[in-house]
Amino acid sequence: MLPYVRISLFYTLFGVVWVFLSHSLLHMLLIDQPALLDSAQIASGWLLVGCTALLLFHQLRRSFTASHQTSQDVSKGAAELQQARETLQHYQADYERLQMEVAKELEHRDTRKRFLAMLAHDFRTPLASIFAAAELLDHYDSRLTPADRLRHYNIIRDQVRHEIELLDDMLTVMRNERTSQDFKPQGLDLVALCLTRISEMQPQLRPLHEIQFKSTMNTCLFNGDERLLRHMLGHLITNAVRYSPIGGTIYVNLIDGTGVVCIQVKDSGIGVPEEDRERIFLAFTRGSNVGTIPGAGLGLAIVRQTAELHKGSVHLESTINQGSIFTVTLPITQNR
After folding, report:
1. pTM (2 d.p.)
2. For 186-331, which CATH superfamily applies?
3. 325, 317 in Cβ contact below 8 A?
4. If DSSP codes are grouped into helix, strand and coil, which group holds residue 256?
């Protein structure tokens, strides 16, 4: 039974008993004195009211004390609950941090495995070509025509150059990675640099691919590291060729902007899946749709490092099976 119901019943019963007993007792004692009987009944009624008021006051005081205690208990419980919630949030944050660290470690381990597999492939293939050409020259040198002999020497030279470039890429990335001591900017013309680099690469690409170069400027004076910029442009063009269909055209554009110059390389290749675009510029990382196309996943990491060393950035726009556009934006406000 609820407390206030029990109290109400108690007061009702007490009032009924009081009225009955006082009425009976007064009638027995003062039956012969009507005037005194009326006064006694009035006094009895006021006494009942007074007793009731005292009882109510006592009960209200107890209720107030109990309520105050309950309020204190609730406040204490709320504080303990808040503390428990904060402790739980702390544990949850630790758990999520550990989860992230484990996921990152697993990702690094998977990246290292994929990198070693790609590295083994990228080193083995040129070495196999070098070994085959050397074997032919060693066993059949006297039977080979001067043209065939020169072709095999060129194979050895080209494959050795490929191995050296791959090792240079690895050292560049693993140094982060490149420090400011390796960054040696000097005055140069970006238009001339692009034309020279494209003319160096075009003979290796024909007749399978064609490079078209356009510039909104005749000259573009820039303060940058020529070696790094040549390396960056070479990786952008090589990637465009590697992931484009045979016979495709690679477009290289040099665009003048407000305080910046943009080097843009556009292809019509396989594109980069949307879920890979954030991490495609990390070392040893490639798109999930590259299939059996060879590559170590170093080129775009070097592109990003070079852009950042020049206080610039690189941006990717891509559509699956339609192509990609890589845009390197370099500030030139202070270089002109």
Report:
1. 0.57
2. Histidine kinase-like ATPase, C-terminal domain (3.30.565.10)
3. yes
4. strand
State the residue for tokens 């510039």: 215
**Amino acid identity, position 237:** I
Q: How far is CA 193 from the centre of its chain?
A: 36
pLDDT on residue 254: 95
Cα radius of gyration rounded to whole Å, the chain: 45
**% of the chain beyond a pLDDT of 70:** 72
Task: Tell me how far apart the alpha carbons of residues 205 and 238 are, in angstroms, rounded to a whole number.
Answer: 9
The answer to whether residue 176 scores a pLDDT higher than 70 is no
Q: What is the distance, to the nearest Å, from the Cα of residue 87 to the centroid of all Cα atoms in its chain?
A: 26
Looking at every residue in the chain, the average pLDDT score rounds to: 78
Percentages helix, strand, coil for the chain (3-state, rounded to 5) are: 65, 15, 20
261, with CB counted inside 10 A (0-12, 13-18, 19+), is buried
> What pLDDT shows up at residue 266?
94
Which pair of tokens denotes residue 260? 């910046």
Q: What is the pLDDT of residue 179?
A: 47
Beta strand pairing status for 260-266 and 323-331?
A: antiparallel
In the CATH hierarchy, which top-level class contains the domain 109-174? mainly alpha
Domain boundaries, the chain: 109-174, 186-331
Which residues are bridge partners to 330 per DSSP? 261
pLDDT value, residue 189 = 94
Long-range contact pairs involving 151-154 (C-beta distance under 8 Å, separation at least 24): none
Closest CA to 320 of 278, 286, 270: 270
Peptide bond into 177 cis (omega under 30): yes
> Hey, CA dihedral for 28, 32, 36, 42, is it positive or negative?
positive
